[in-house]
Design brief:
290 residues, alpha+beta, D-amino Acid Aminotransferase, Chain A, domain 1
């Protein structure tokens, strides 16, 4: 595997950054996870746009154009001879000192990794997965805006640990007021009476690229979908529940806190969304090898 760091490529074991990098010291940076399917990078421009938006929101000058980042991503995939895979783009404040002040950093660090990633067993996509409601709450939306995809993921990690201790792979997170936000790494949707609901981002959920794409797919399929607040009660009593994410894609949930969702198997609308998603990603995106 070859890893891109600031315009150069390094073998995996030699891909290193300084311990004085403020991304390492303070989580001062932003990132994106991107997928490639069938020789195409899916929603690449949307991911890069969000990367730049996140960087701007934390006053981080990436120092490269969007077009250059896109080309560097494609080059990284080509260098690793991938047709399909997962891409991680990371931009940090860069090398500095032990002080908190970012003014002492001497330039950003840009890292691009292209690899394979499978976060859930295939069986979950066919039969559904179990989750829990985490006791760890999301960060308040009025402190760090949830639209910023930053390197600060500690509360998500706490919730992920809680899920693992409960014997499941994923946990649903609530905000301070008790409204459902998202999972540790995925957005969440519920289906009741043939209608889909997903939490609005102002509650503390990331505006996921896959989330927004699925909202568009639902409208294309003439399935009513709304962004509105709901509590865990609406999950427990839903007919269907599914999660979305760049790595997760579209995955059904059939049990939450030991409560069976719907009939205990992936529902009709979840399958419809999942099938449409799978067929679309194979033909849509920027070609890697032209």
């Amino acid at each position: 595997m070859l890893v891109y760091i600031n315009g150069k490529f390094y073998e995996k074991e030699h891909a290193k950054i300084s311990v004085f990098d403020h991304g390492f010291l303070y989580g001062d940076g932003v990132f994106e996870g991107i997928r490639a399917y069938n020789g195409r990078v899916f929603l690449l421009e949307e991911h890069v746009r969000r990367l730049f938006d996140s960087a701007k929101a934390i006053m981080l000058d990436i120092g490269l154009s969007k077009e250059r980042i896109i080309e560097d991503i494609l080059t990284t995939i080509r260098k690793n001879n991938l047709q399909e895979g997962y891409l991680r783009v990371i931009v940090t404040r860069g090398y500095g000192d032990l002080g908190l002040d970012p003014v002492n950093c001497n330039g950003v660090t840009v890292v691009i990794i292209a690899d394979k990633l499978k976060i859930y067993p295939q069986d979950f996509y066919e039969k559904g997965m179990s989750t829990i409601i985490s006791s760890t709450r999301k960060n308040n939306a009025d402190t760090i805006n949830p639209k910023i995809k930053s390197l600060n993921y500690l509360n998500n990690i706490f919730a992920k640990l809680e899920a693992r201790h409960a014997g499941v792979f994923e946990a649903i997170m609530l905000n301070r007021e008790g409204y459902v936000c998202e999972c540790t790494g995925d957005n969440i949707f519920v289906v009741s009476n043939g209608k889909i609901k997903t939490p609005p981002t102002y509650l503390g959920a990331l505006q996921g690229i896959t989330r927004d794409f699925v909202i568009g797919l639902s409208k294309k399929l003439n399935i009513e979908i709304r962004e509105e607040p709901f509590t865990q009660y609406e999950i427990y009593t839903a007919d269907e529940c599914f999660l979305t994410g760049t790595a997760a894609e579209v995955i059904p949930v059939i049990k939450v806190d030991q409560r069976i969702i719907g009939g205990g198997k992936p529902g009709k609308i979840t399958k419809q969304i999942s099938d449409e998603f799978k067929s679309t990603v194979k033909i849509q995106g920027i070609e890697i090898y032209k």
